[in-house]
Amino acid sequence: MLKFDIEKQDGLARVGVIHTPHGDIRTPAFVGAATRATVKALTMQEMRALGSQAILANTYHLILRPGSELIQEAGGLANFSSWHGPTFTDSGGFQIFSLPNVKITENGVKFKSHIDGRNFEMTPESSMRDQWAIGADIHMAFDHLAKSDSYEDMKEAMERTHRWLDRCVTEHQRLAEGTTNRRFEAVRDNGSEIASEPRNDGRERSGPRTAYSCANRPMQYLYAVVQGGTFDDLRAESARYCASQSVDGFGIGGVFTADGMDTMLQLVNNILPEDKPRHLLGMGQEPIDLFIGAEYGCDTFDCVGPTRMARNGSLYTNDGRINIKNAKYIHDFTPLMPDCDCEYCKNYTRAYLHHLFKTDEITAKVLASIHNEHFVVHVTDRIRESLISGDFAAYKSEFLARYYHQ
RNA sequence: GCUGGAAUCGUCUAGUGGCAAUGACAAGAGACUGUAAAUCUCUCGCCUUCGGGCUUCGUAGGUUCGAGUCCUACUUCCAGCA
After folding, report:
1. Pair (A293, A326) in one structural domain
2. CB of A329 nearer than 7 A to strand B
3. What is the pLDDT of residues A82-98, one digit of tens each?
């Protein structure tokens, strides 16, 4: 089982530590979206420097390129990308929702590669095998988001997600056989601490490698994904189903806006077991997502929004988002956020970043991404601190009032 | 000086008698939530009660129902010849 310590609980909100084979995640935490094994425009060293604790890569993208076997050959996602910290992979289930021309059957999902048109089929079993090969610490079950928001479609997608979850759990357990969690379980196996860092495991293997071999590797963990859309009874049913499974944590999927998220999370997180971590999938573009998510019991978040918006010139400030490309910043020689200690705000002005965007310099996207990622990571860290100190409510109202000009 | 060619939005450009006139860039603004996303959308002569009105293709005339388009002169630029 994935080790998760809860240090403080206040209603549904909690402060904890997820202990992964590649290190700890102090929660609540914002996880950087590294879809193709990289956080766009940023190096892993920059991610570490700005305070990120973990990254999330995407199975769909990585099996297309470079292929899960290559990442396994490289020693897993952490070694391959030089992140050397806790990692997640999304299952590829979200692509069912977001890609056109996918064929969904009970067995799985057929799709053509958007790169070269090759035919692929992803099933619960193949997603598990690919995620084991990619080697992230925490995997998501292969789920199905309904494309429509009708009750019938939501119910059908949720029920399929549950049937697929059974298959994910079975395959995950099969893959886990013979696998050792060196950091937490090896002690029991041989009575002594293992000194070597798990990150080197990929290079320690000897003998012929077989595809999807998982022997002699650190343990990997599986989150079930709660679906059900905006329907309370479906969300409750899905939460109960996921809670009954032998999984290490939970992803909460199919959430697209903070509207109604509080009541949905109250419903779901009151059903999910307290002692396992919960990841709110894809939410965090709007700071309010992080506040509501943490307040109602979510431990980790990931979102492509901060880096995507950064690349497009939209930057977070404590007073709301601004578009640095706007003409009003041409002569603005002040820092974007004087009280921000990211590399951009500490060293450069708004006018400079405006210039970099206008001239389409690569550095524009780098600096903007550093700032936005730093912003959401630190807002989430600050939420954690406020939960510890008991100031969460005050911090939340103060932040949201200023950010959203309420 | 002679002979050709050319002049269209901030820039480059389409347009060879029929609706302010093509495309790109630049400019202005907006969107973005488990990334087919360094992407996409809108505006881009002036005015507008959103029906439309007005003024525009180097300058000035002319032909024509109608001219960026044809004719004449001029101006500027380019090429070739002196």
Report:
1. no
2. no
3. 999 999 999 998 887 78
- Is residue A333 one of the residues assigned to a domain? yes
- In the set A116, A143, A302, A339, the catalytic residue is A302
Spell out which residues of A between 108 and 147 contact strand B, using CB within 7 Å. Answer: 114, 140, 143, 145
Q: Answer for A258: CB within 7 Å of strand B.
A: yes
Q: How far apart are CA A14 and CA A100, in angstroms?
A: 38
Q: How much is the ipTM here?
A: 0.88
Mean pLDDT value of segment A321-332: 96
pLDDT greater than 70 at residue A138? yes
Mean pLDDT on A117-127: 93
Structural domain includes residue A320: yes
Classify residue A102 as exposed, middle or buried by CB count within 10 Å of its CB (0-12, 13-18, 19+): middle
Please state the domain count of chain A: 2
Asked whether residue A355's C-beta has any atom of DNA/RNA strand B within 7 A, the reply is no
Q: What is the pLDDT of residue A216?
A: 59
Q: Does the annotation count A299 as an active-site position?
A: no
Covered bases, chain B (protein CB within 7 Å): 26-40
Q: Tell me the per-residue pLDDT of A163-181, one tens digit each, with 9 for 90 and over.
A: 999 999 999 999 998 776 5
Q: Is position A90 annotated as part of the catalytic site?
A: yes
Q: Which of A268, A303, A338 is the last residue of a domain?
A: A303
Please report, rounded to whole angstroms, the spatial distance between the CA atom of protein residue A240 and the C1' atom of nucleotide B14.
65
Per-residue confidence at A192, pLDDT binned at 50, 70, 90? very low
CA–C1' gap, A36 and B35, in angstroms: 9
Secondary structure of A89-117 as H, E, C letters: EECCHHHHHHCCCCEECCCCEEEECCCCC
Asked if the Cβ of residue A56 lies within 7 A of any atom of strand B, the reply is yes
**A147 and A75, same domain (yes or no):** yes
Question: Given pLDDT bands bounded at 50, 70 and 90, which one contains residue A200?
Answer: very low
pLDDT at A194 over 50: no
CA distance A107 to A116: 24
SS (H, E, C) A123-180: CHHHHHHHHHHHCCCEEECCCCCCCCCCHHHHHHHHHHHHHHHHHHHHHHHHHHCCCC
